[in-house]
Specification:
alpha+beta, CofE-like fold, 11 strands, 6 helices, 2 domains, globular, 3-stranded antiparallel β-sheet
Length: 239
């Protein structure tokens, strides 16, 4: 179990054992262990709910202290209903409960903590990539994944909230399709597709498989952070 201050790169190197990373490999790391290692937790006993949090908590039937933490990580509430708050996170993501999580966060001291998203997931991915490249001396990519709901479909799916060493988006506009027609709107969420594939192995409950090695991908587009995956407000028809 990952704890605050743990060196995730060292844990991955130890888990790889005699296996060497190869150029073009992608390491996908679950957000939860990054947040734990970086100490992104809040003890609910230390939280005093504001009037806004108390009012919203009554509407959605949640602990006012938890709602206060959610609001502290958000720039605005997009929608709410009983047992659900959709917010715009300070990092730009539109998501449930600002990513504030209580599952798989139990601690040995019995303190009721909640887990936040990493402060800067792209920077966390970059630091992990640098540490692994120093050990294996090959160019690799790193994706930090999280489970998100989707506005038009049921069920959660792995997406990238942090990335380094690979293109989060691949813009195909201007290229021809099979029949020579010029593509006009095709942009691939490359890092999201990697995160979704890895999520099949990582699981979302008690699998305890937070790191996945993806091998065999090819790309030529320049590296770009996961922040580029967030749709700008002026392009968003639903906010």
């Amino acid at each position: 179990m990952v704890r605050e201050g743990d060196d995730i790169a060292a844990l991955i190197i130890a888990a790889l054992g005699s296996r060497e990373l190869r150029g073009g490999d992608v390491i996908v790391v679950a957000q939860k262990i990054v947040s734990k290692a970086e100490g992104c937790t809040v003890d609910l006993a230390t939280v005093t709910p504001s009037a806004e949090a108390t009012k919203l908590a009554a509407e959605v039937d949640k602990d006012p202290r938890l709602v206060e933490v959610i609001l502290s990580q958000s720039t605005r509430v997009v929608r709410s209903r009983p047992n659900l708050i959709i917010v715009q996170h300070r990092l730009g993501f539109v998501m449930a409960n600002a990513g504030v999580d209580q599952s798989n966060v139990a601690s040995a001291d019995g303190v009721h903590r909640v887990l936040l998203l990493p402060r800067d997931p792209d920077a966390s991915a970059g630091a992990l990539r640098l540490a692994l490249q120093q050990r294996y001396d090959v160019p690799i990519g790193v994706v930090i994944s999280d489970s998100f709901g989707r506005a038009w479909r049921r069920g959660t799916c792995g997406i990238a909230i942090g990335a380094a060493g690979l293109p989060s988006l691949i813009d195909l506009r201007g290229q021809p399709d099979l029949f020579g027609r010029t593509l006009e709107v095709s942009i691939i969420g490359f890092a999201d597709e990697i995160a979704a594939a890895a999520s099949l192995l990582q699981g979302q409950a008690a699998e305890a498989q937070p790191v996945v090695l993806v091998r065999g991908l090819n790309w030529s587009a320049p590296s770009a952070p996961a922040a580029d995956l967030v749709r700008p407000l002026e392009e968003d028809l639903f906010r």
